[in-house]
């Protein structure tokens, strides 16, 4: 999460996503047109490096909204495209899944850093790491808009889709108000069983890790200049997981597969817990 400062990812373009934010939004709007469960909302406009962008939030819920509230965010760092693609495919796959939507209501932030996405950089076009700007006095425009968009929202589960260009395998961060919510080790086992590499270092990004899972206590973090995951935890999310797929060690399609596999396992577990 920290280590890919200014790095350029080695991946190429993803199916239908030629690093054009406009095309990404058009693709998502098509899903909205095809499903009564999807609503795309403009959150706000901002201007950066002579370009005008609009940030969106996508609400995905059934006629009778599912009681378990899930937030999925992608593209905070522009050079981590697997998360953006995974979020888009998740929406496409789930838009008409009525059975899923009897349990879950989703809020999806498909691309938090549009200028970084188009430039293929971790930072936005002004060189700001947006994921260190939450809960600051004067955050970047993107962060101010994103903070507004979740004000007063209570999520049961938050999934932040990231990549780490320096990691040789998957790892994840997991914060939970109660240990029964944890699903990280199960995801790691499943991804490993599917033949993908796991980062087994005992220390990742300066934090203690166990078999690919970093599970720090929230009280040990600083209170300002937060990453979005911690901001969401402080807003009251009960379970926050940040996925970090290996941005250079695998082709992008494999990284998207891992992100979707992790989401599916996490939701399956959440569904089981709810139905029990
Ligand atoms: Zn990241």
Describe the overall structure:
With 276 residues, the protein is an alpha/beta fold. The chain has a single domain (21-275), classed as Aminopeptidase (3-Layer(aba) Sandwich). 33% of the residues lie in helices and 22% in strands. The chain is built from eight helices and ten strands. The strands form two sheets. Strands 1-2-4-3-5-10-6-9 form an eight-stranded mixed sheet, sandwiched between helices. The protein has a two-stranded antiparallel sheet with strand order 7-8. A hairpin with a 2-residue loop joins strand 7 and strand 8. It is globular and about 45 Å long. It starts with 20 loop residues before the first helix and ends with a helix. 46% of the residues are buried. Zinc ion is lined by residues 1, 76-77, 80, 162.
Structural class: alpha/beta
Low-confidence stretches: 1-17
What is the count of β-strands? Answer: 10
Helix content: 25-40%
Tally of separate domains: 1
Strand order, sheet with most strands: 1-2-4-3-5-10-6-9
Strand count, sense and closure of the main sheet?
Answer: 8 strands, mixed
Q: What bound compounds does this protein have?
A: zinc ion
* The CATH homologous superfamily: Zn peptidases
Instruction: Work out the radius of gyration.
Output: 17 Å
Mean pLDDT: 92
User: The CATH topology, please?
Assistant: Aminopeptidase
Number of DSSP helices? 8
User: Span between N and C termini?
Assistant: 35 Å
CATH class call: Alpha Beta
* Shape call: globular
């Amino acid at each position: 999460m920290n280590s890919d400062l200014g790095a350029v990812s080695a991946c190429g373009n993803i199916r239908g996503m030629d690093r054009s934010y406009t095309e990404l939004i058009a693709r998502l709007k098509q899903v909205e047109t095809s499903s009564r469960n999807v609503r795309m909302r403009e959150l706000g406009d901002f201007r950066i490096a002579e370009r005008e962008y609009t940030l969106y939030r996508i609400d995905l819920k059934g006629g009778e909204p599912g009681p378990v509230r899930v937030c999925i965010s992608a593209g905070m760092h522009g050079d981590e495209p697997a998360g953006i693609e995974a979020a888009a495919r998740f929406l496409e796959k789930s838009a008409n899944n009525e059975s899923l939507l009897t349990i879950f209501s989703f809020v999806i932030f498909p691309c938090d850093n549009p200028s970084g996405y188009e430039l293929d950089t971790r930072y936005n076009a002004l060189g700001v790491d947006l994921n260190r700007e939450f809960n600051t006095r004067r955050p970047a425009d993107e962060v101010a808009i994103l903070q507004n968009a979740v004000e007063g929202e209570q999520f049961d589960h938050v999934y932040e889709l990231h990549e780490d260009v320096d990691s040789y395998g998957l790892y994840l961060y997991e914060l939970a108000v109660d240990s029964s919510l944890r699903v990280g080790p199960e995801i790691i086992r499943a991804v490993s069983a599917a033949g993908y590499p796991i980062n087994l270092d005992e220390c990742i990004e300066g934090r203690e890790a166990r078999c690919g899972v970093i599970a720090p206590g929230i009280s040990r973090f600083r209170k300002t200049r937060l990453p979005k995951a911690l901001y969401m935890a402080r807003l009251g999310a009960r379970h926050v997981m940040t996925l970090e797929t290996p941005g250079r060690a695998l082709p992008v399609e494999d990284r998207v597969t891992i992100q979707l596999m992790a989401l599916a396992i996490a939701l399956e577990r959440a569904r089981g817990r709810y139905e029990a």
